[in-house]
Backbone:
């Protein structure tokens, strides 16, 4: 397998593609983690206030 | 006969009242008509400072510059289309008035075009002198603007209806609307090019421009009315 | 009412009928059920997507070179799937927009919002790889080629949609406004594509070498097809992950609204937030 005279362009294209997809995936995963953290904290507080009122 | 014309007069009385109201609001000081024309004139005047005073070059690119100037000037006034009516509550009244909303939208578009598009067309002959445009080309520019600028207003109205709840959505509105106006720009400039270029069939771009304008006339009022109804609180 | 407000859908009187109908029709109408489905499907789908892409790209590199374009034709195996996905994603968003406006499906709006950044990313990949392909073929990174220009305009429209979503605070209002804009764009896209092609033929006679001509040798077509399927699977994987995020963020919003409403009204917590 040879990449021929334009190897740098082929590699750059594949690199750019990988970069964009990795960045997108990382962003989605990072967002998921922070959202889950916030949701956990909020629902814990929410449940606490609920039981607080009921008692 | 007399009485019949009177009743039909009264039926559409509200339409004329709305038209006159919008025109009056637009042409008063600070209303936007004057600023639109001033903006257009300034943009055209500034171009030679960027490109150099080469009259030959200017006459080649003049149609494109005039069209882009007109497009930008139309965009400048778009947030005026519905925003102030939304802010002072009169849009709410129009929605509740029981009149066909599509017709209200059309009347507002007509008023906007009369106070934005038409003044630009009237200013174009003077600016054409600055850009060394010959008479045949000037005629083509005027014709293409006459057919094309209503479509710009109509497309802009759709965007304005979608962004009506945004505070200061003017810049975003321009970004949203600009891609949709590209076909108008292409065929508008090509109409002028076809007038002087023997290789292009003279009528094709003009007819395409007419078609696009009619298409936006058919779609835009419906889309704008739909989005106003859907987005009202 | 608790279940309705959970994912941020405010149900007006007129909407209730359509919603109930759809709820019965579609099992995924319930976000909780959708999240469970994602939990099960996501990992196998991701593995399958990566395996398929790897297979497609491997076959692409083993395949013979194009006699005309040489080895640069290998850029095609990522460029064409990305370009396909840029259009596929917009179609998906247009269908979701119909789902939001006509059928009032509670997940349609979530689907459209989650799809927009992914579509923009694949459009960006199509632009980048196209331009890197164009340099050896055309001699410049950018040529106002009809296809590239249309993809660029599509990219601007994606960015505009994302900006509109960010600009309107109320998620329901934002979803509706974006749905209308998506549909207006969907009507306009063929017109834009046609006029750009016409404009291009006017200014550049057909001497320009096209990126993906109609004649592709079958030995190149098979890896291209496999790669396209792999990228589409990857798209669905990312889309599900983004939809899950969107559902989570709407739950957070609902909880915050409830928390804000609770101390003032002194009502039981199941009370709907002030509308």
Residues:
């Amino acid at each position: 397998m040879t990449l021929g005279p334009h190897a740098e362009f082929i590699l750059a294209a594949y690199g750019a593609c990988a970069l964009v997809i990795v960045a997108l995936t990382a962003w989605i995963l990072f967002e998921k983690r922070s959202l889950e953290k916030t949701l956990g904290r909020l629902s814990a507080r929410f449940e606490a206030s609920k039981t607080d009122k009921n008692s | 006969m007399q009485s019949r014309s009177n009743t039909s007069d009264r039926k559409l009385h509200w339409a004329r009242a709305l038209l006159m109201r919008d025109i009056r609001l637009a042409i008063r000081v600070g209303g936007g008509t004057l600023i639109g024309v001033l903006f257009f004139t300034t943009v055209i005047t500034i171009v030679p400072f960027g490109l150099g005073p080469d009259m030959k070059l200017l006459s080649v690119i003049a149609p494109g510059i005039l069209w882009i100037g007109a497009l930008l000037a139309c965009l400048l006034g778009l947030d005026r289309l519905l925003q102030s009516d939304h802010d002072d509550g009169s849009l709410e009244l129009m929605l509740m008035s029981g009149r066909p909303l599509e017709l209200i939208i059309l009347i507002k578009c007509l008023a906007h075009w009369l106070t934005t598009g038409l003044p630009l067309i009237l200013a174009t002959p003077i600016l054409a002198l600055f850009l060394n445009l010959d008479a045949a080309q000037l005629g083509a520019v005027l014709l293409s603007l006459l057919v094309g600028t209503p479509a710009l207003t109509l497309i802009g109205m759709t965007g304005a209806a979608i962004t009506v709840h945004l505070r200061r959505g003017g810049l975003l509105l321009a970004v949203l609307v600009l891609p949709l106006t590209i076909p108008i720009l292409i065929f508008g400039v090509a109409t002028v090019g076809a007038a002087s270029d023997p290789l292009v069939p003279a009528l094709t771009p003009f007819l395409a421009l007419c078609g696009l304008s009619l298409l936006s006339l058919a779609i835009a009022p419906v889309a704008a009315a739909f989005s106003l109804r859907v987005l009202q609180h | 009412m608790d279940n309705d407000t959970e994912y941020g859908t405010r149900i007006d009187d007129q909407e209730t009928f359509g919603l109930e109908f759809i709820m019965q029709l579609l099992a995924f109408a319930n976000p909780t059920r959708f999240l469970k489905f994602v939990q099960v499907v996501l990992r196998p789908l991701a593995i399958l997507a990566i395996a398929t892409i790897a297979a497609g790209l491997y076959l692409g590199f083993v395949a013979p070179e194009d006699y005309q374009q040489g080895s640069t034709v290998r850029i095609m195996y990522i460029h064409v799937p990305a370009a396909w996905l840029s259009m596929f994603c917009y179609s998906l968003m247009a269908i979701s927009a119909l789902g939001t406006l006509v059928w009032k499906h509670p997940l349609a709006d979530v689907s459209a919002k989650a799809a927009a950044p992914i579509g923009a990313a694949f459009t960006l990949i199509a632009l980048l790889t196209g331009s890197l392909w164009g340099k050896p073929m055309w001699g410049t990174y950018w040529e106002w080629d009809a296809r590239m220009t249309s993809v660029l305009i599509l990219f601007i429209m994606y960015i505009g949609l994302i900006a509109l979503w960010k600009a309107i605070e109320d998620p329901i209002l934002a979803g509706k406004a974006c749905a209308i804009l998506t549909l207006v764009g969907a009507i306009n896209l063929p017109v834009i594509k046609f006029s750009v092609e016409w404009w291009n033929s006017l200014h550049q006679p057909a001497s320009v070498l096209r990126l993906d001509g109609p004649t592709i040798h079958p030995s190149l077509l098979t890896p291209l097809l496999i790669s396209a399927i792999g990228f589409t699977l990857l798209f669905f994987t990312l889309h599900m992950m983004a939809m899950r995020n969107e559902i989570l963020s709407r739950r957070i919003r609902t909880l915050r609204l409830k928390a804000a409403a609770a101390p003032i009204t002194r009502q039981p917590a199941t009370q709907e937030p002030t509308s």
